[in-house]
Amino acid sequence: MDLGNLMASDPTHHFESVPSSRQELTRACLETGTELVQAIANAVFALPSTDDPDGPIVRLPPPTTTLPREKHLPKPKPPTKWELFAKMKGINKHKKDKRVFDEQTGTWKRRHGYDRVNDDKDIPIIEAKLSDEPGEDPFSKRKAEKKQRVEKQEKNQLQNLKQAAKAGALPSHVQLAATALPITGTNGEAPKKASKEELQNVAGMAATATASGGKFDKKLPGEKPAKHAGKYRKFLPVVEGKGMSSQEKQQTAKILDQLMNKSSHGMLDVNKAVTMFNVKKEKQRKKEKEHKTSSAASKLKPKKKSLKKSSKKKH
């Protein structure tokens, strides 16, 4: 019995006689399993317990049976460029102290963070070097150099992550090949063979992944033709070549013929056009008549005399 895993077994159990049917075998297994579960329950209730608002709590002993691991062991991460360089040069990693003695102030300060040692903000004067250009601000130069170092570090970190993701892998189009041979750079496991339904789904997605939705793609053997086949639009080339001017003239003349020839009269409703013309003429005639009537009436009206006072003074 293993109380740590809540597991019990009876290695000495045997059937007195061979079960005659499946129901008899199931009944015998259930009886034996019930006895084992009851034995585990008796052993758990015999352990010392502590009181709790939810009920008594029992601490199980450590397990004695070694069970197999469910997941595979984690693979070691691929080394970074710095780790490879340090291994080649024999550089050993050692932990640095958090506090460093500052010679300028004569006190112990942090190596990093707030109030750290050799902080750029605490340096009032920077000595000039022979390589410095005249008129250049050393403080802004130091700030720009620090920004470049940070960007370079982030770039290297991203590159290390990309290399770690590509370790032991091949391009996706190689891994998609359903062959019985293992893929180079892996643990030697053969790739899973794709089923017929998976291949049909992938083929359907790939066929409709083009800009035209697979309208102009070449059909596979045995594939049904499209109900509405796509038609390519034909345009005249931009640069004129031999005979290009005549083709352009023919195209323009064809369009004019469609608009001006006798067969194009079917495009125009003659009766409707005549009716619209007559209505327009009638409206214009009424408008002119009203204008003449209003002008004649204004001429027959008597003119009113002005009642303006004379500006001459009486003496």
Automatic annotation (TrEMBL):
One GO term (biological process)? endonucleolytic cleavage in ITS1 to separate SSU-rRNA from 5.8S rRNA and LSU-rRNA from tricistronic rRNA transcript (SSU-rRNA, 5.8S rRNA, LSU-rRNA)
- Cellular location(s): Nucleus
Keywords noted in UniProt = Nucleus, Ribosome biogenesis
Q: Indicate yes or no for the key word Nucleus.
A: yes
Query: What are the Basic residues biased-composition ranges?
Result: 300-315
Q: Which Pfam families match?
A: RRS1
Basic and acidic residues bias locations: 114-155, 190-199, 215-226, 279-293
What GO cellular component is one of the record's annotations?
nucleolus
Q: Which parts form a coiled-coil structure per UniProt?
A: none
User: According to the UniProt entry, which residue ranges have a biased composition of type Low complexity?
Assistant: 203-214
Return the annotated region ranges for Disordered: 1-22, 47-80, 93-169, 183-228, 278-315
State its role: Involved in ribosomal large subunit assembly.
Which protein family is it in? Belongs to the RRS1 family.
Do you know which PANTHER family this protein is assigned to? RIBOSOME BIOGENESIS REGULATORY PROTEIN (PTHR17602), RIBOSOME BIOGENESIS REGULATORY PROTEIN HOMOLOG (PTHR17602:SF4)
Question: What is this protein called in UniProt?
Answer: Ribosome biogenesis regulatory protein
* Source organism: Musa acuminata subsp. malaccensis (Wild banana)
